[in-house]
Amino acid sequence: MNEQNESFLFLLGSSRRDGNTEQLVREAAAALPAQTSKDWLRMSEHPLPPFVDIRHEPAPVYETPTGVEAMLLERTLAASHLVFAMPLYWYSLPADTKRYLDYWSAWMRVPGADFKRRMAGKSLSVVTTVSDENRSVATPLIESLRLTADYLAMQFRGAVVAFGNQPGEALNDASIVDRIGALLGAGVAA
Ligand SMILES: Cc1cc2nc3c(=O)[nH]c(=O)nc-3n(C[C@H](O)[C@H](O)[C@H](O)COP(=O)(O)O)c2cc1C
Fold it and tell me: Ligand 1: distance of its center to the CA of 89 in Å?
């Protein structure tokens, strides 16, 4: 894959605008090559209805997604690199992002979407912010995304865990933006 068709989808999972995670990722993304395509989604601005598991209903019908769901599916498939950028909420993923992930289960079964095959080979990176001085509390979040990437034969690129609570606080770590930049840069072909 060459640089022309590198495309990042930044999935912003905080329930507040311009929080720590978003600030960090926007700064790091600004250093990506100008020709790199960058798409931004604030998950809280695109609410999905509660996910319903119909897998074991008699003759389940997976309708072609419409509305917000169709938009999210299309932008997910259009990206070559998915960057999950979200705070740690109760040692896990914030609910909007988790619900979006639950929809992947349905998209795998939508006739014609070819979701599983088209997700294979995309990369997945994680940027998260914690307020606990022990950054290993983010391990459950990171591992759930690593395993999800493995399940879909995606390439898990790694994770950066920032520390902060008040918006802007995470930027006090002088090396954090560079570390996120390195994580993103690992997804850009030379
Ligand atoms: C609902 C909720 C749950 C949280 N759970 C945790 C947690 O389990 N561990 C932790 O270290 N911080 C937790 N925090 C603190 C946030 O991770 C922290 O404030 C972070 O800076 C928020 O990121 P943001 O500025 O990108 O929104 C929680 C915050 C909220 C609002």
Answer: 5
- Closest-CA residue, ligand 1 atom 3, reads 89
How far is it, in rounded angstroms, from Cα 20 to Cα 168?
5
pLDDT per position as a tens digit, 121-177: 999 999 999 999 999 999 999 999 999 999 999 999 999 999 999 999 999 999 999
Q: Do residues 159 and 126 touch, judged by C-beta distance below 8 A?
A: yes
Q: What is the position in ligand 1's atom list of the atom closest to the CA of 88?
A: 17
- Beta pairing class for 81-87 and 7-12: parallel
User: Per DSSP, what are the bridge partners of residue 10?
Assistant: 40, 83
| Residue whose CA is at the smallest distance from ligand 1 atom 2 | 89
Q: What is the CATH number of the domain that holds 150?
A: 3.40.50.360
Low-confidence ranges of the chain (pLDDT < 70): 1-5, 186-190
* Ligand 1 contact via 142 beta carbon (within 6 Å): no
Question: Considering the chain, what percentage of its residues have pLDDT values greater than 70?
Answer: 95
Q: Which domain holds residue 154?
A: 3-46+66-185
The residue behind tokens 């879909």 is 152
Kindly state whether residue 56 falls inside one of the protein's structural domains. no
Nearest alpha carbon, ligand 1 atom 28: 89
First to last CA, the chain: 10
